Amino acid sequence: MQNNRNQATFFLVWLWVLLVSFSSTNTLKAKEYIHPEPLDLISTDFKQMYVVFAGPYPASPSSAFGHILLVFEPNNDESSGEGGVSPHLWTAVNYAADVDNHGPVEMLWFGLTGQLQGSFEVLPFYKKIREYSYIDAREIWLFPVQLNGSEKVKILDIIQSRNIPKAYRFTDKNCATEVADVLLETIGEKYDRQIFGLPQDIIEHKTIKNRLGSPLLIPSYNDQMADILGPSFDQGIADSMWPTSDKLTTDEKVQLLKITEWLSAINNEAIPEDTEKNIRKLRMDVLGKSSSVPTSILRKADFSMHKPTRVGFLGHIIGTGSFGTDMDIRLGLHDFIDYQSVYPRFDYLNFLHIRSRFQENQFSVEEFWLLKQESRFPTNELFSFPAWDLAIGGTRYNFNSSFKLRAGIFSGVGKTVSYLNNKVHSSFILGTHFVASNKTILDAIIQPKIEQYITPFKRFRVVAKVSNPILISDFNSRYLLYEASLVVNLGINSSFIVDYSKHKELTSLRVGMKFNIGI
């Protein structure tokens, strides 16, 4: 049974990687590869080793589930001061594939079939902070690992012995499996390889978890800016943020300078001339003033991730008074109803979603998706990355009073804009669903849609949608579809759901619970 589930997971992830690779501009970025080096930069009396988890990044297949690496904090020396050596100067040991000489399609195929070459690389930790926190806007979590003196020597010897290129495969010979293998061999145990290995599995592995201490957090630069300028900060260095700078305290100005100088140094974002003047003004404002801004970029924070599988049971009633039960099964990364922690707030990804209905002694499939991804990052800039959808599967449409499941390939593109400090945002999406048809080999459904998201609290969310599905082969076959959902997260892995929909003569209300569970 376990192997069957793993094989199904492998197939679905393979399919998603293939599709996103041809549809997303963020596909599998070629990384800066550093050829294998000796570990001479790391002393065996290092102060602390961390398992580092970079948060998920669903827009890129290679980073959809996050990334795992090891980071070594050196012991204090005379020049490091009371605060110790800055995390930027710690040493990272990263397992990655060499993709320098491969194009996107070739890299995708080689990564799926295990023909890439992977190895451990040694580099300053600031390069990974730059990549994850400032370029990808991802959170970085550091879990201290309890190691005794002999284990500190042993783990460096193990990494050194593996410091030769070997086959790399996205599914089971990746950063997660290699780091797990090294950690468990150091502890004196063997890693049981799975068909599909996730970075989350390393943190949840029973033996490894027992060695991990309380995590530390490096927030994404978006979160750092939002802490200073408020949640209305719009993912960029915009002139609109500077009028508020006169209201900032000295500490906030110092922190703002640190962030903008990092962004400028890595050339991630061009800083307008007017903004450069404001940065110079900030420097003058803080000149000669004392600040309590901590030198360390690390924060204490709780770490929690929901399980990857969701099962939901919802009582269903339609306008005629007929009762039934809906059951949702989902295998995926993140969805709108999930508790927003660690995962990207506006990126939703499911590899498998089936919604079935039991009503009046009849069974029906209401939705079936092999893949469903929605990206809804709000931005008020006109020329910015769009909102988009990508899905394979089907849902029921009500054309000509014929309520049928129509399956095919769905895609959509549009724009998401924000209001009220990102607590409210609207999406305007034009979708196209190419479906199989009895009359023709291929038919299409055009579906313009307006979505309104309201997220006043992390545990309470509302979404309302109005769409107008239009069947191309019969242009008169169209109707308005109204949908609304209320989500109350009762915990990290449970949610109370109220769903309402109305189209033509059909009105339905679903109320129930959904649970995230492990598999």
Description of the structure:
- With 519 residues, this protein is an alpha+beta fold.
- It is 23% helix and 38% strand.
- It has ten helices and 21 strands.
- Helix 1 (2-23) packs antiparallel against helix 2 and helix 8 runs antiparallel to helix 9.
- The longest helix is centred in the N-terminal third of the chain and has 22 residues, at 2-23.
- It is globular and about 75 Å long.
- The model is unreliable at 1-14, 20-37 and 78-82 (pLDDT under 50).
List keywords for this structure.
single chain, 519 residues, alpha+beta, 10 helices, 21 strands
Task: Please provide a brief summary of the model.
The chain is α+β, with helices and mostly antiparallel strands and 519 residues long. Helix content is 23%, strand content 38%. Helix 1 (2-23) packs antiparallel against helix 2, helix 4 crosses helix 5 (175-187) and helix 8 packs antiparallel against helix 9.
Give a topology summary.
Elements: H1 2-23, E1 48-54, E2 67-73, E3 91-98, H2 104-113, E4 116-124, H3 125-135, E5 140-145, H4 149-161, E6 166-168, H5 175-187, H6 199-204, H7 206-209, E7 216-218, H8 221-229, H9 250-265, H10 273-286, E8 299-300, E9 309-318, E10 323-334, E11 347-359, E12 362-375, E13 387-399, E14 402-419, E15 424-435, E16 443-457, E17 460-467, E18 470-471, E19 481-491, E20 494-503, E21 506-517
Helix pairs in contact: 1-2, 4-5, 8-9, 9-10
